[in-house]
Input
Amino acid sequence: MFQNSYKGKVVLVTGHTGFKGSWLVTWLLKLGAKVIGVSKDIPTNPSMFESLDIEKKIFHNFIDIRDLEKLKGIISKYNPDFIFHLAAQAIVSKSYLNPVETVSSNVIGTMNILEALRFYKKKCITIIITSDKCYDNIEQSEGYKETDAIGGKDVYSGSKGAAELIIKSSSKSSKYSGNIDNIPIEIQYIRSKPCYMVAKSEEGLDRAHKKALDRLIHRG
Output
């Protein structure tokens, strides 16, 4: 399917210890990639990352993406061909309890990825993941599309909307789309349609969500 696009390539995944990150790493390993993982911790218990013993299969690093210099160091050390940026504060309810962490992780973390790439002297394809919550929720029944306005009614949604704006603004900026100190970088901005996922996790779901999910699983 991918015509050996990842075989033998160095792929850096931020947020590799999370649910989506663990799945992505497992998939990349099957495709023959050399995977570098960057996360600040293991966010759930139980953890797919631990259950699949992923740490022994990749180059695992505990680093906070808000630390720009350490992030630059990892990129310089491993020289990735691809970067998948998934690391984030990903729980809506937690954004009410700790809005500063949510914004710093989701906005500054994304900006740090872009800034680290600005000084990277190698062609690198980078996919930055945000969320369907980046869209302004106007309670429409048909869902949202790429041309809809971004925004949100909670800090989490705002942080993802802000990340989208940072990526889009960077794609329009000559300092990113041009050439700085002979380092070529070009950003293509595409906002895809929402993709929905359901995961059962003690940390990833609040009590109401876990109760509803249990009913769905056990009662159909």
The mean pLDDT is 83. The CA atoms of residues 153 and 186 lie 32 Å apart. Residues 10-194 form a domain with the Rossmann fold fold (CATH 3.40.50.720). The two ends are 34 Å apart (CA to CA).
